Amino acid sequence: MNLLLDTHIWLWLVGDPGRLGSQVANELRNPQNEVWISPISSREILLLTEKKRLQLNVETRKWIRENILRLALREAAFTHEVALQAAGIDLPHRDPADRILAATALVYNLTLVTADRRLLGCHGLPLLPNR
To answer: Of 18, 67, 76, 101, which one is least surrounded by beta carbons within 10 A?
Structure first.
């Protein structure tokens, strides 16, 4: 399975793995699965630390770079196709980051790993719910 981490799942995987459900934790440990990250998650983490809503134990840019490498995350680039797909995503809210993550999952044929109830209600999106 090819998994795309929602931003909070990435943060939990690194800093609070006990918040991951057993199925999610098992899938993330499975060496047959590829784990992907979107640059929008890096941007979200940068914004959260700038706004003091998130504190990391190291400088934010360093945390992002180190954890992409340490976890061997593949990059799901924000492409024109992702942007076009995002415009057609039907979500119950207007969060542009969620739209981009959903579109990225569809374009790259990835399963989005999330605990976000608003995304979990999105029909037609391949999801692995964190419960």
So the answer is: 18
Task: Find tokens 């980051």 and name the residue.
Answer: 97
Q: Which CATH class is domain 2-129?
A: alpha beta
Distance CA 4, CA 81 (A): 17
Burial of 89 (0-12, 13-18, 19+ CB in 10 A): middle
**pLDDT tens digits, 82-116:** 999 999 888 877 789 999 999 999 999 999 999 99
The domain ranges of the chain are 2-129
State the Cα–Cα distance between residues 33 and 84, nearest whole angstrom. 27
Is residue 125 within 8 A of residue 15, CB to CB? The reply is no
Concatenate the DSSP letters of all residues of 24-88 into one string.
HHHHHH-TTSEEEE-HHHHHHHHHHHHTTS---SS-HHHHHHHHHHHTTPEE----HHHHHHHHT
